[in-house]
Design goal:
This protein is an alpha+beta fold. Helices cover about 35% and strands about 10% of the residues. The protein has a four-stranded antiparallel sheet with strand order 1-2-4-3, covered by helices on one side. The protein is globular. The termini are close together. The mean pLDDT is about 85.
Length: about 220
């Protein structure tokens, strides 16, 4: 990175924190780890979004193509926001079937069919707080455009949940200016990338959960 971009990334990190990020780290684009094995995690176990969500594989940009795109970038900011302040409820800390939990997570967007329980309240909090990354991403991209960094592009913290049910392949996205592909949909190893950036991630059952996402800057 040149000094101008490095200085601007630091400014953007400060701005992101003002907007609600709990942590923001400037990194060179070469520190973003892309690994084809990430794609396997879409299939083992098979994610309910695979093939049905416009922002997820195989509808997202192929990993091989993203690798070539990434080579053209010089910098990025890795961001984190605390989604919930406590660990998951007891019923989610045992040997829970992952697909069962994911279906509940998707469904909590439809409040009228989901009674309030410790599990649905917890998962709804996770889902509702996704608005923070979307808001920060849009504002950072706007700032970058004004400064001449017109290739700034944000990547989401998770599969797109803007709609209760994605329109799916062959139909136009309902939120084309808001939806973003997930980091892992493009093959980014989020855990290793965060580790290289010095950002601590924990998957301990009794700890709070966070959203982690990325904005490429150039």
């Amino acid at each position: 990175m040149d000094e101008r971009l490095e200085s601007y990334l630091k400014f953007l990190c400060g701005r992101a924190k003002e907007l609600g990020a709990s942590e923001a780290v400037a990194i060179p684009a070469t520190d973003i780890v892309v690994d084809e094995r990430v794609a396997l995690k879409c299939l083992a176990p098979r994610c309910p979004f695979y093939g049905t969500n416009l922002m997820c594989p195989p509808n997202a940009m192929p990993i091989s193509q993203f690798k070539n795109v990434l080579k053209r970038y010089h910098g990025a900011i890795l961001l984190k926001t605390d989604s919930v302040t406590s660990g998951p409820p007891e019923e989610l800390t045992g040997p829970v079937e992952i697909t069962e939990t994911w279906e509940v997570f998707k469904a909590v967007g439809v409040e009228e069919i989901q009674p309030s329980t410790p599990t649905t309240d917890y998962l709804r909090s996770l889902r509702d707080n996704l608005e923070i990354p979307y808001k920060i991403t849009r504002q950072i991209e706007s700032l970058c455009l004004k400064e001449g960094y017109h290739f700034a592009a944000g990547l989401s913290a998770t599969g797109c949940l803007l709609c209760d049910q994605c329109v799916g392949p062959g139909e136009p996205c309902r939120h084309p200016l808001k939806a973003r592909p997930a980091m892992d949909a493009l093959g980014i190893d989020v855990v290793t990338t965060a580790k290289k950036a010095g950002m601590q991630l924990s998957f301990a059952q009794n700890e709070a959960r966070s959203w982690v996402w990325l904005i490429l800057i150039d």
